[in-house]
Amino acid sequence: MEPPKVEKFSSAARGNGLRAVAPLRPGELLLRSDPLAYTVSKRSRGAVCDRCLLGKEKLMRCSQCRVAKYCGAKCQKKAWPDHKRECKCLKSCKPRYPPDSVRLLGRVVVKLMEETPSESEKLYSFYDLESNINKLTEDKKEGLRQLAVTFQLYIREEIQDPSQLPPSFDIFEGFAKNGILH
Ligand SMILES: [Zn+2]
Ligand SMILES: [Zn+2]
């Protein structure tokens, strides 16, 4: 593997960043990484494939939760390792559907609990993200607290106790990092 062309650094005033460690040519690819986690939004749900996000008229539905939809058997199979645990949660909270940020954080948690860290975590991890909790207004904090409660209800099929979460993971902070505030 080629040596990395960028490194992580942090500055007290501006937070974390990446900087070049080798001479660069214009247009040169510095870094490519799959996201740690992603999910279709409520708006696109049912209209695009849960894995490749391709829009298609006829999508295949997960026979377990009947929520996740795929463009074909190949995507469904590839999506299963990431969907397996959320599938039970989605099924258990039916007929309700979780807020997008709750489903997304569920996927983040599952990823962080994997034994082999995701490729995207090597350079810049979820724990490096700033939560900006101190900058939130009381209203937004209250919103996050409610999301945290919704999250615990959503995930309880898989995680009943905070001790089962990844080490040093905090649900409230997780939402602040996700940056989705309603
Ligand atoms: Zn697909
Ligand atoms: Zn499913």
TrEMBL record:
Q: Which InterPro entries match?
A: H3K4_H4K5_MeTrfase, SET_dom_sf, Znf_MYND
Its recorded reaction(s) are: L-lysyl(4)-[histone H3] + 3 S-adenosyl-L-methionine = N(6),N(6),N(6)-trimethyl-L-lysyl(4)-[histone H3] + 3 S-adenosyl-L-homocysteine + 3 H(+)
Q: What PROSITE patterns would the database entry show?
A: ZF_MYND_1, ZF_MYND_2
Q: Does the keyword Transport apply?
A: no
UniProt feature coiled coil, ranges: none
EC assignment: the record states: 2.1.1.354
Q: Which keywords label this protein? A: Metal-binding, Methyltransferase, S-adenosyl-L-methionine, Transferase, Zinc, Zinc-finger
Q: Name a single GO cellular component.
A: nucleus
Q: Which GO terms describe its molecular function?
A: histone H3K4 trimethyltransferase activity; zinc ion binding
Q: What is the enzyme's main class?
A: transferase
Q: Which GO terms describe its biological process?
A: methylation
User: What are the residue boundaries of the MYND-type domain, all occurrences included?
Assistant: 49-87
Family matches, as Pfam families: zf-MYND
Protein name from the UniProt record: [histone H3]-lysine(4) N-trimethyltransferase
Give the originating organism: Pipistrellus kuhlii (Kuhl's pipistrelle)
